[in-house]
Amino acid sequence: MVDFTPTQLSQRIVELGLLEPIDVERAWSEVGGIDGSCEDLIRVLQRRELLTNLQVDRIFKGERTGYFYGQYKVQYLIGAGTFARVYRSVHRETGRVVAVKVLRRRHRSEPVQVEQFMREARVGMDLRHPNIVAIHEVDADPRNPFMVMEFVEGQTLRELIHIRRKLDPKTAMQLMRDVANGLAFAATKGITHRDMKLSNVLITSQGKAKLVDFGLAALADTSNEAALADCPNARAIDYAALERGTGVRKDDPRSDIYFFGSMLYHILVGASPLTETRDRMARLNVSRFREVPHISKIDPDIPLNVAAIVHKAMEFDPQKRYQTPNELLEDLRATLDRLEAGDTLTTARIAAGKKDDPAAADAATEGANKTIMLVESKLEFQDLIREKLKKRGYRVLVISDPARALARFIPDEDSPADCVLFSAPELSSAALDAFNELGTQSHTAHIPAILLVDRKQQFIIRNAKVGPKRMMLAMPLKVRELRTALLRLVKSPTAPS
Questions:
Q1: CA 88 to each of CA 92, 120, 133, 198, 216: distance values in angstroms, whole numbers, following the listed order
Q2: Is 0.70 surpassed by the pTM of this model?
Q3: C or N terminus of the chain, fewer CB within 10 Å?
Q4: Please, what CATH class does the domain formed by 358-489 belong to?
Q5: pLDDT tens digits, 9-28
């Protein structure tokens, strides 16, 4: 540490270009003149936000560089990784706040690392999107390369999960929709990210997500269809393992989609679906990607259509995954619309006894004056539902054909049922089509409906048009769950609005 006299400290601050002489003189006047202590001067300058802790530390260490990068004055460190540091900085003339990313000194003599750093800068300069952290300019001086980036006031997604452990489905889907927006835009430029992880997503103070760090980004090589993934960098090892195991190229957007699914899985349940290890050989083991448990087994309360997105994004077979970020984005938007409709339980198993507990209702009169139309072809299930609901006071009308069920609803005539129960396990797409049509026809849109689905019916789950009066329940069905749903939907006889 350097032991400065007050005069020497004043001179050093001015020599470094951190402050003008007038700023130092005003600070001295506040502490009673040059006879004051260095500590007094530093205290005043910091209170006035003219010096930062980082600048003060560097001054007293005797360092004469690292205070400026181009026209940008470094204020404090906001992030540090193996390869680079990121500083909050301000333009010395305009005062614009930015983030300056600087390659660590030990890597400036390594051509591979310098090229990767410059690659991130070049790619980022071409990616102008609200959900991607912008890169404004770059200095390619090999002795001290740096890039100037958008400053995001907030935290990384990893930091957020460290604090909150996991996120509710709606919040998780909102953030990941933003991430998918960024991925989809990059795809229009022929760019894949190749380093999808929680620490590469920044969350703004307004709650918006932005992708950062395209240092490993790959540009589509359409001239070389046979080019398979390699592993030139340790940071790409997880991608390389997956891509080698599935035989795809390193610019394949479906790799980003897989790790996108892994991120969504993580923030929903609070733990990574992939075994986390630093061991290189363990990370290259393809079984890590094959043995991921279905998210519904980890948390059965996650909405089925949310679970379906995670499952499809993380399919080991790339042909079964979403094929493009835009396809993924469409499903995210549709599912989020359902969650934001106000009924967050529409695609989850309704937790027994948590809401609208049927035990509070008189069992014999619970369904009084209400008719349930059951659309089901399996006789055993018809009998089971009829028996259970009749005990609760409901009238049950059974129809085996979905088209014939819809035909019973005639415009300008009284509705034959207060709620329609469609069974997809037996009727498959016919039940789905009838369920969706009931909600779109003007004379039936007010009629509540429930779609029963098997968890394996992912197509039906993704395409069901749910909402405040449209729900899904998972099979095997518990009577308590069905009663809870009916109480939510048909508290009183429904009439056209």
A1: 13, 19, 14, 21, 23
A2: no
A3: C
A4: alpha beta
A5: 999 999 999 999 999 999 99
